[in-house]
């Protein structure tokens, strides 16, 4: 149901964009054209939400083991750059119109903005019935913020109709451009963080390590990595020091860690390597928590050279004993 609603909302928002672009050019209203730029952010949000729902139904394969979630992130990055360019154009045109005011047709502004308000309210109220998921909440924020921008266009039209003060049109367009810029910057920051595999915002690594060390049976944690596969989809890998025990005995520790990571940090994909020999000090920095990455000849493909050296000595002693 959510997928169908998002698809309908996407195409309805495309109609709003067309109506405001046509109305903006016919009315010669920069504010209405700026609001059309703001509608582009709604189309982006709806498109990503629709894409996320569709990708949830698509299974990973031998080439795309994490699935196709990063396609949406790349699209988001391209969209953010495009929105920043739109902001530059709007501000440049607004500055020109502040110096040389141009006549505006307020009645056409009313009509185009009213269409935007009506359709956006229909979309927002429809999505509200779908539930309280992250996608739905994000899209509703975009949609209802566009209702506010369209209401601003109508207010500007009323001011122009009553006073003839056409300068309010470029002033409002600058305000809408600021809204677009804030949204674009947030998208750009989030997408670059995901592509750089930064720690998800709001997740405290010291708190995470502290909670992991509280799990019964865990002595220490190192070589820790936490990143986002896509928005709100977190992954973790680490080495965990435990007592020397059999695999069946350690399974309860693994279950406790995964439960804590899922419930407290919403980390649904965790790769945890158990160890019982302290050897990370010479390879890890920052008090042994974060390990440097390198090629196979430099470091470990998650195999410490200390382990290889110990294994080599054991094999050598074994051969000498046989001979």
Outline the structure in words.
- The C terminus is likely disordered.
- The protein starts with a helix and ends with a helix.
- It is mostly helical and about 325 residues long.
- It is about 65% helix and about 10% strand.
- The chain folds into two domains: about 190 residues, Cation efflux protein transmembrane domain (Alpha-lytic protease prodomain-like); about 110 residues, Alpha-Beta Plaits.
- The strands form two sheets. Strands 1-2-3 form a three-stranded mixed β-sheet. Strands 4-5 form a two-stranded antiparallel ribbon.
- It has nine helices and five strands; from the N terminus they run αααααααββαβββα.
- The protein is elongated, with a radius of gyration of 28 Å.
In short:
By secondary structure, the protein is mainly alpha-helical.
What order do the helices and strands come in, and which of them pair?
Elements: H1 2-27, H2 30-56, H3 69-99, H4 106-128, H5 134-163, H6 168-195, H7 205-213, E1 218-230, E2 233-242, H8 247-265, E3 267-275, E4 284-285, E5 290-291, H9 305-322
Parallel strand pairs: 2-3
Antiparallel strand pairs: 1-2, 4-5
């Amino acid at each position: 149901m959510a997928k169908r609603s998002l698809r309908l909302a996407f195409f309805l928002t495309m109609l709003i964009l067309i109506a405001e672009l046509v109305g903006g050019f016919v009315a010669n209203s920069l504010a209405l054209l700026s609001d059309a730029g703001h509608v582009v952010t709604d189309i982006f949000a709806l498109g990503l939400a629709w894409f996320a729902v569709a990708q949830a139904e698509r299974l990973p394969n031998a080439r795309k083991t994490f699935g196709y979630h990063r396609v949406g992130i790349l699209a988001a990055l391209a969209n953010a750059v495009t929105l920043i360019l739109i902001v530059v154009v709007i501000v440049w045109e607004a500055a020109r119109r502040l110096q040389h005011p141009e006549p505006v047709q307020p009645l056409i502004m009313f009509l185009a903005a009213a269409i935007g308000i009506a359709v956006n309210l229909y979309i927002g109220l429809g999505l509200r019935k779908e539930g309280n998921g992250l996608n739905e909440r994000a899209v509703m924020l975009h949609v209802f913020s566009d209702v506010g921008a369209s209401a601003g266009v109508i207010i500007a039209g009323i001011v122009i109709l009553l006073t003839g003060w056409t300068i309010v049109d470029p002033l409002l367009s600058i305000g809408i451009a600021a809204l677009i810029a804030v949204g674009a910057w947030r998208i750009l920051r989030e997408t670059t963080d995901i592509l750089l595999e930064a720690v998800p915002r709001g997740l405290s690594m010291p708190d995470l390590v502290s909670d992991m060390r509280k799990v019964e049976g865990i002595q220490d944690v190192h070589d820790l990595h936490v990143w986002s596969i896509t928005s709100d989809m977190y992954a973790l890998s680490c080495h965990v020091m435990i007592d020397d025990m059999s695999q069946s005995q350690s399974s309860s520790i693994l279950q406790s860690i995964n439960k804590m990571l899922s419930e407290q940090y919403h980390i649904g994909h965790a790769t945890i390597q158990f160890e019982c020999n302290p050897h990370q000090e010479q390879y890890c920095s920052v008090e042994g928590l974060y390990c440097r990455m390198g090629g196979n000849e430099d470091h470990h493909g998650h195999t410490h050279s200390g382990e290889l050296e110990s294994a080599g000595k054991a094999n050598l002693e074994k051969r000498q004993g046989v001979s």
